[in-house]
Amino acid sequence: MGSLKEELLKPIWHAFTALDVDRSGKVSKSQLKVLSHNLCTLLNVPHDPVALEEHFRDDDEGPVSNQGYMPYLNRFILEKVQGNFDKIEFNKMCWTLCAKKNLPRNILLLSDDDAFKVWVIFNFLSEDKYPLVIVPEEIEYLLKKLTEAMGLGWHQEQFEHYKISLETTWDGLSAWELIELIGSGRFSKGMDRQTVSMAINEVFNELILDVLKQGYMWKKGHRRKNWTERWFVLKPNIISYYVSEDLKDKRGDITLDDSCTVEALPDKDGKKCLFLINSCEKCFEISASDKKKKQEWIQAIQTTLNLLKLNSPPPHKEARQKRKTLRQKLQAEQEELERQMKELQMANENKQKELETVRKQLEEAAARASEEEKKRLQTQMELQDRFSVELEREKMVRQKMEEQVAQKSSELEQYLQRVQELEEMYKQLQEALEDEKQARQDEETVRRLQARLLEEESTKRAELEKWHLEQQQTLQVTEAEKQELENQRMMKEHALQVAMQQLEQLEMDRKQALEQYEEVKKKLEVAASKTKSWKDKVAHHEGLIRLIEPGSKNPHLITNWGPAAFTEAELEQREKSWKGKKEHS
């Protein structure tokens, strides 16, 4: 289903692109509705106009882009395709939309029908990427098939020159460029228009219609047993035979499946080159024109049966898939190689940057070493200058020291003289100390007397402190009693405050109860007034309405209609009310 979807998307893309007149990537909704209706008709898909209108509802203005149309196309059309449709008619509808706008007018060797077939072949061989292009490998494959069909040899050098003449960034040709290339006759070597058309038709039958082999052979009838020449067409699962090669009058089909066989037969009944096809329905005896044709047909039919048993696609589709896989593999290898080259280039650049960084670091280190050497020399010169200055300074200091030594020697003589003077003073001081010693003994006697007096004074002070402590203890006891009384007073004040708060709360509750009582009283008064007015109304309409009350035990009055519903007292009261009303009126 995926391959069928991709196969259908390519012609639809051409049609959508052709409807995009302004090349803005968008198409008007009315054109897309017509395109969708035609696609549903040709693909045998039930058309749902409600879904179409819902998808293209006018909640936004302007045309619809390819991305906006693709969800509807996938959901409501392509996913419902079953394969039971005419592919040629489908391709012709898409071709009609895009050919008038894009088909070049200078295609000398191609008719419109040939151009259509080349366009369909392009869609089959092009890549599954948009915008659609056919890569050089597929162009070479198609041109080889065409030259072989025309009976010509393939010249690889000519195609290589053609590729070189194009741009270096050339990725492939569009459908219209391919049609122009084949129509120009560049690779047909002067072949006429009919030959080119026959070659295109042969390649178209093989690649698009899956015709594996075709040609005239003789078939033996099943009823009359006569031999008739027919045009046989071999496809992957069927052999059809026609009256002639124009394929207009189809005479029957030979269905191929796993149980079919093909085998050669000996010549008989004057017919040569016979072979037999055993199908699930019938056996068909066929006569080829010669042994070569016979062997080719047997081999082709046997190959087809083998492909059916293996559930493999036709050879040209399998070859295309292999070429595509090979291109993808080469592209992946190329991308991997480019990635590795980029990594190597980045690694090389990183290495270059590292080397440049190391070189700069070496240059900076050399510059620093040179600068340090200059500083070292400068420091050495400064040290030499400083050493010479220090040497001069040391000489001056030595000279000063010699002067100081001379000065100190004179000071020493003066000091010795001073020592003698001090010894004499020491003798005088010893005499003074003897006198002071005697004075101290006298002072000690006086101090002992003072100590005795101080001891007596301390005794009296201790007694006074004892009395002071007793007074303080008495004061502390009095203070504790005072604190206890103060605590009791505080507790009573707190209890009084709590009682006052409770009293205020009770007062508020009493007020609220009084207010509720007043409200209830008002409600009772309103209810009483309503009841009184109701009773007045009942009394006013007494003649019409009377409340149902318990009956009196007294004997009832008898009226013309039976026992009365009132007593005599009530009757008298009503008479009085009636008379009063009359007098008032």
UniProtKB/TrEMBL annotation:
Which residues are in the EF-hand domain?
7-42
Q: Which UniProt keywords apply?
A: Cell membrane, Cell projection, Coiled coil, Cytoplasm, DNA-binding, Membrane, Nucleus, Phosphoprotein
| Membrane-spanning parts | none
Question: Which InterPro entries is this protein grouped with?
Answer: EF-hand-dom_pair, EF-hand_SWAP70_N, EF_hand_dom, PH-like_dom_sf, PH_domain, PH_SWAP70
Which compartment or compartments is the protein found in? Cell membrane; Cell projection, Lamellipodium; Cytoplasm; Nucleus
Q: What does this protein do?
A: Phosphatidylinositol 3,4,5-trisphosphate-dependent guanine nucleotide exchange factor (GEF) which, independently of RAS, transduces signals from tyrosine kinase receptors to RAC. It also mediates signaling of membrane ruffling. Regulates the actin cytoskeleton as an effector or adapter protein in response to agonist stimulated phosphatidylinositol (3,4)-bisphosphate production and cell protrusion.
Q: How does it assemble?
A: The SWAP complex consists of NPM1, NCL, PARP1 and SWAP70.
Tell me the protein's name.
Answer: Switch-associated protein 70
